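Page 47, continued from p. 46.
Same chain as before, 247 aa.
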Amino acid sequence: MFAETKAVQLHSFGRPDTASSTSLYTTPAFWERLWRMSGINFLLFSVIAYIIYPHSQAGASPEALAALYSGDHLRILIAAVVSGMAILNLLWFVSALRSTLADAGQDGWGAAATAASAVLGGFFLLLLTVAAALAYSIAGFGNGALFLGLNELVWVGLVMTSFPRAMLIMAGSFGLWRAKLISNALFTAGVAAVVLVLLGGTTWTSGGFWAPFGAYSRFVSPLIGFVWVAVVSRVLLTRTPATRAAW
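Result:
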């Protein structure tokens, strides 16, 4: 009797739990759809972070900037956390894009998109680190020149992100078009988005619309990227995932 009971127990330990193995959360389709939704999550987190983050005025003095970072340091740190979540979702979004392109035989474009997202994510993390450091402690040091220089570094870095952003849009647009997953009209819009985002890398005037802190760099260029992410997210979500165990 004891031997039979023990044999049953050993058999149970060696047998997978049927209920858990058939759970929705263990299926590749669940994870595939979750990562394909990451583009929408990226947009939501980005908008929330933008609303929370207190924005400085163009040409502000070191004293005004120090007052901004010191007085609103909690908002800046919260925005840094939310922005970090946005970056994570951006990387997952591009991973889902690459897997879709790989299924369609366009993994070269998928690899280019992955490389662009890695550079872009690193850029954004660096800029977030500088802004968070200014709010966390540097603003209280009283070194106006250092403080102003680091604040300008954030704006210059935002301009330089135009290049990996353009590469990401180009890789995704060309890959989806070659895979016949988007129309010629959407492809043309994607090419136009690449050109417009690349123009953001030329915003070097000392003031006005075309300055690093001007309207084009702060609003127009990022908005173009957001629209592209939204359109590609819709394409990914409406396409039936391939059957695989990659997730």
